[in-house]
Amino acid sequence: MFDIQQHIIILVVIALVVVGPKDLPRLMRMAEKWVRKGKSVADGLRKSLDDLTHAGGLDGLRAELIALKQPRG
User: Fold this and answer.
1) Which domain holds residue 17?
2) Is the pTM of this model over 0.70?
3) Residues 42-69: b if buried by 16+ CB within 10 A, e if exposed
4) Helices and strands (H and E) in the chain: how many
5) What pLDDT score was predicted for residue 70?
6) Structurally, how many domains does the chain consist of?
């Protein structure tokens, strides 16, 4: 099986053939911007969901459900 390094090498070779060595650095910068933008959007979404969870009182509800699940003795 291929490991991750072999996959990256194959992708770089394909990019060199398709894009060419002249435009490859520009393509890599664009890909980096897309990855950073995607991470930023995911972080913002995660923060928004966390804020909604805390603001909606779901933490208290979760604690009540856990308390109900515990056997009484």
Assistant:
1) 4-69
2) no
3) eeeeeeeeeeeeeeeeeeeeeeeeeeee
4) 3, 0
5) 86
6) 1
